[in-house]
Design goal:
The chain is α/β, with parallel strands linked by helices. It is 48% helix and 10% strand.
Length: 557
């Protein structure tokens, strides 16, 4: 049933389900099917947009409401139909205008944390997202009351309360907009006392906070005051808990002036190539430094957009060559080779894997990406590989990518692998790790340190694991065969699974027994991650980042 629902949503989308619900209400002699499809559509809409749903799934909600009223309003005889129609009209009015309310509140909000003298959030009286949840609730209640023939005046009262809430929200937003200049002035004067030397700029979708959080401990090591600039509100509450530095949400381009014009702000660091990054890069008196959030042979690691920054930090020489090798011409003088500080706590070993007894293998697949041309996810082919690992009495750590759940098919494939591991644990007693035990309770580095070898895809995870000197395998999900190592040079140091897993036994023998690429892997380690002492590995990044943070842009050479 779940698979059919997912397939239907992928084929028709939420609006398609809404249309189907309306037609079933209007044309089917049995309205139960209209209710079922409408309930599925509303449930999916709520789940998908429960964190940022204001103004989303408007059409599907209107279609379901219209279907309910078309079916039930004519059959009501006691006069309560007017209350039902009133409740429906009020609910529809709020749903249609949700996006207007959302924009007004977003324009009013000034969210600041960790800055003395400025309140955590100077905003409207309650979260605008409550309106979305209230509207979803009203759709459900109207359907339930109409179907049960209950008195509908409570619905009209509830809809009126929602409308009062929206009016309060808008009036409060207007109040905050009126005093926004005063609030920003207070923020500026307080931030000047903090005197940030650099800014950390972040813009990205929900689920991408790992891109920023991995860098925060190293910004702290610079020993300089700084400010975190967020462009979206979804990350505010999480980031404010991860750092003691001031955090400010700048929803408009104009509001960025309040940070960019700090007198001693010399540098800005970026952790991705978000579309809104250019809004801050325009301030040419600041040195703009791109860090990215991983080092891999994927296209994001040689994106031409990276050329717009003043400096590009890369882990090793491979990070410089990768751009030129793909025809992306960026002056070499823009690059700083600084290592990848996040690998400093990875355990390094010279032990040969063939000498190990009970082996632990980390399987860390990537996600499907936003388009098929960057889909390197091995989950569709992983069952055979995982079965062979279990047949060899290997303990498996299965760590999913943070974005795996974005693709319903990937989520289903992941669940099937987790079921395999669970069944093997019950049958053999081997303590495999998966789900939250591998992805929440343990950090990625802790997974590295527990494993004797790793299987992954074309991903930055592979470059990080290289630091350990342990063997690893990569999946060729683009089915390039002999050309694979030309497209993805790090594969020269890896054992490569074919897309159809036809060589799975041979690869596992090399990975877990003989390890003939041991010397090649150590050479690749220097090329990809730099040649720095293990004990002070992160200092290369810290020293170079501090240099730009204390040096005025005009003196940066």
């Amino acid at each position: 049933m779940t698979r059919r629902v997912i397939s239907a949503v992928k084929l028709f989308g939420l609006n398609g389900l809404g249309i189907a619900s309306f037609l079933l209400f209007a044309l089917s002699p049995g309205v139960v099917f209209g209710f079922l499809v409408g309930a599925v559509a509303i449930a999916i809409a709520w789940y998908r947009y429960r964190r940022s749903g204001m103004g989303k799934a408007v059409v599907v909600r209107l279609l379901v409401l219209t279907g309910v009223i078309t079916t039930y309003a004519p059959s009501l005889q006691d006069g309560n139909d007017f209350w039902l129609l009133a409740a429906t009209a009020l609910t529809m009015a709020v749903v249609v205008n949700e996006s207007i309310v959302s924009r007004a509140v977003g324009k009013a909000r000034l969210a600041v944390a960790n800055l003395d003298g400025i309140s955590a959030r100077d905003e409207v009286v309650f979260d605008r997202q409550l309106i979305f949840h209230a509207d979803i609730g009203m759709v459900v209640l109207i359907g339930a009351f109409a179907a049960a023939g209950l008195p509908s005046w409570p619905l009209a009262l509830a809809a009126g309360v929602v409308c009062v809430g929206v009016a309060t929200l808008l009036l409060d937003a207007r109040r905050l907009i009126g005093k926004k200049a005063e609030t920003w002035a207070a923020f500026r004067s307080t931030l000047e006392v903090h005197d940030p030397a650099f800014a950390v700029y972040f813009s990205g979708p929900p689920g991408g906070l790992y891109q920023l959080s991995m860098w925060l401990p190293y910004f702290e090591r610079l020993g300089l005051p700084y400010v975190v600039v967020l462009r979206e509100g979804h990350s505010f509450n999480t980031i404010r808990e991860l750092t003691n530095a001031p955090v400010v949400q700048c929803t408009s381009i104009a509001s960025l002036d309040n940070v960019a014009t700090m007198p001693n702000l010399h540098a800005a660091f970026y952790v991705n190539n978000g579309m809104k990054n250019s809004h801050f890069v325009k301030y040419r008196h600041i040195t703009h430094i791109q860090l990215l959030h991983g080092d891999s042979d994927k296209p994001p690691s040689y994106n031409p957009v990276t050329g717009m920054y003043d400096r590009i930090f890369v882990a090793g020489r491979a990070g410089v060559d990768r751009y030129a090798n793909h025809g992306v011409h960026i002056p070499e003088t823009k690059f700083d080779v600084v290592g990848r500080p996040q690998v400093e706590t990875i355990d390094v070993t010279d032990a040969h894997i063939g000498d190990k007894g009970d082996k632990v293998v980390l399987y860390a697949p990537t996600w499907t990406g936003y388009s098929e041309d960057v889909n390197y996810c091995s989950l569709p082919a992983a069952r055979k590989m995982l079965r062979r690992l279990l047949d060899r009495d290997v303990t498996v750590i299965l760590r999913e990518h943070p974005y795996t759940a974005k693709n319903p098919e990937s989520a289903r494939q992941l669940a099937a692998l987790q079921q395999m591991l669970d069944a093997d644990t019950r049958a053999t007693g081997r303590r495999h790790l998966f789900g939250s035990a591998a992805s929440v309770d343990l950090t990625l580095v802790e997974c590295f340190n527990r494993a004797d070898a790793m299987i992954s895809d074309v991903s930055g995870v592979v470059s990080d694991f290289l630091f350990s000197k342990k063997p690893f395998a990569i999946t060729d999900m683009v089915d390039e065969r002999e050309e694979f190592i030309e497209t993805f040079p790090l594969a020269r140091a890896a054992y490569v699974f074919r897309r159809d897993m036809s060589n799975v036994d041979d690869v596992l023998d090399q990975l877990l027994k003989v390890d003939p690429l041991e010397a090649t892997r150590r050479q690749a380690r220097t090329y990809y991650l730099g040649d720095y002492p293990v004990e002070t590995y992160a200092e290369a990044f810290v020293e170079r980042a501090r240099h730009y943070a204390v040096t005025p842009h005009e003196l940066v050479g």
